[in-house]
C-alpha cells in the first residue's frame, strides 16, 4: 500500500468531515430545541457558498469579508425561516414543519438555479502555502477548513455548556414548560436556535466550496449526510456528532480512492443502517456532550 496516498486521503476526509460536522451540529440543535427536521437545510448550506461567490465576483469583496457577510446574512435569514416557515405550523401538526421546510428547499433551489444556473464556481483562496510532512501535503485551504470547522463546533459546545443563554437553550430542550415557568423567553430561544443553525450551515457551505466548488446542487447530498451523522451519533450529543462526521468524511474519501467512487456515500448510509439496527438510539445517546 502507498502509505503517503493513504494518509493524504485521511486528511482530505478530515477536511470533508469538518464541513459535515457543521451541518450536523445545526441539524442537531434544530431538532433538539424546535423538534423539527429542516428539509431546507441543504439549500441554506448552498446559499452561504453562492452568496460568498456573488460578493467576490460582482462586488469585488475579499474572500474573508465576503464569507463573513454571507454567513451573517444567512444566519439572520434564520429568523425569517423560523417566524414565517416554522412557527405558524409547528403546533398544528407534526408533519407540517417537514412540508413547509421542504417547500423552502424547493423555493431556494429553483430560485438559485435561475440566478446562478447549475455551473460550478470556484471561490478562490488568497494563500497558496502548504506544509509537507513525509510526502503528505497539508494545503492552506484544507488546514483552514479543518481549523475553522473544529474551532466553530468546539466554540458552540462551550457556549451551550457555559454561557447563560446557552444554558437557557439546554433547559428548553429538557423541559419547555419548566423553562417558561422560570422566565426563559422560549420564542427568543427559537429565533436564536435557527440563527445559529443557519449560520452553521452557511459556514459549512463556504468551507465546502473552498475545498471543492460552489454550485446549486451542493447541499442536497450534504443534507442526507447531516441527518445520517445525527442519527448515528444519537440525538442530543454534539461531540458525538463531531466524531461521527469525521468518521464519515474519512470513510467516504477512503471508499472513493480505494473502492468504488460512485458508491462512497452509499457506504455511509449502510453504516448508518447498521448502527440503527445494533443501537437504535445512536452510539452516543446518554453520554456527555
Describe the secondary-structure layout:
Elements: H1 3-34, H2 41-59, H3 63-90, H4 96-116, E1 130-133, E2 136-139, H5 140-162, H6 164-174, H7 176-181, H8 186-211, H9 218-233, H10 238-258, H11 264-278
CATH fold name = ABC transporter involved in vitamin B12 uptake, BtuC
The general outline is globular
Mean pLDDT equals 89
Strand order of the largest sheet: 1-2
CATH architecture: Orthogonal Bundle
Helix content: over 70%
Computed CA radius of gyration, to the nearest angstrom: 19 Å
What is the CATH domain class? Answer: Mainly Alpha
Our count of domains comes out at: 1
The proportion of strand residues reads under 5%
Biggest sheet details: 2 strands, antiparallel
Elements, N to C (H/E): HHHHEEHHHHHHH
End-to-end CA span? 37 Å
Number of helices: 11
Amino acid at each position: 500500500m502507498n502509505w503517503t496516498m493513504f494518509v493524504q486521503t485521511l486528511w482530505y476526509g478530515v477536511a470533508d468531515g469538518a464541513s459535515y460536522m457543521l451541518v450536523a451540529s445545526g441539524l442537531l440543535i434544530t431538532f433538539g430545541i424546535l423538534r423539527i427536521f429542516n428539509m431546507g437545510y441543504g439549500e441554506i448550506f448552498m446559499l452561504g457558498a453562492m452568496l460568498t461567490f456573488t460578493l467576490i465576483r460582482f462586488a469585488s469583496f475579499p474572500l474573508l469579508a465576503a464569507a463573513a457577510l454571507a454567513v451573517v446574512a444567512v444566519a439572520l435569514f434564520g429568523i425569517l425561516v423560523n417566524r414565517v416557515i416554522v412557527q405558524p405550523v409547528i403546533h398544528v401538526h407534526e408533519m407540517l414543519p417537514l412540508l413547509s421546510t421542504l417547500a423552502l428547499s424547493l423555493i431556494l433551489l429553483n430560485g438559485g438555479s435561475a440566478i446562478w444556473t447549475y455551473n460550478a464556481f470556484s471561490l478562490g483562496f488568497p494563500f497558496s502555502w502548504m506544509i509537507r510532512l513525509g510526502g503528505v501535503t497539508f494545503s492552506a485551504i484544507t488546514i483552514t477548513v479543518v481549523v475553522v470547522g473544529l474551532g466553530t463546533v468546539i466554540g458552540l459546545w462551550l457556549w451551550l455548556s457555559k454561557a447563560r443563554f446557552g444554558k437557557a437553550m439546554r433547559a428548553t430542550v429538557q423541559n419547555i414548560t419548566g423553562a417558561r415557568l422560570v422566565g426563559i423567553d422560549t420564542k427568543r430561544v427559537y429565533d436564536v436556535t435557527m440563527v445559529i443553525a443557519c449560520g452553521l450551515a452557511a459556514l459549512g457551505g463556504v468551507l465546502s466550496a473552498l475545498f471543492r466548488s460552489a454550485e446549486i446542487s451542493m447541499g442536497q447530498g450534504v443534507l442526507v449526510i447531516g441527518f445520517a451523522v445525527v442519527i448515528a451519533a444519537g440525538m442530543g450529543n454534539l461531540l458525538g456528532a463531531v466524531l461521527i462526521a469525521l468518521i464519515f468524511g474519512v470513510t467516504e474519501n477512503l471508499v472513493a480512492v480505494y473502492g468504488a467512487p460512485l458508491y462512497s456515500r452509499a457506504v455511509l448510509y449502510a453504516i448508518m443502517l447498521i448502527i440503527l439496527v445494533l443501537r437504535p438510539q445512536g452510539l452516543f445517546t446518554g453520554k456527555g456532550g
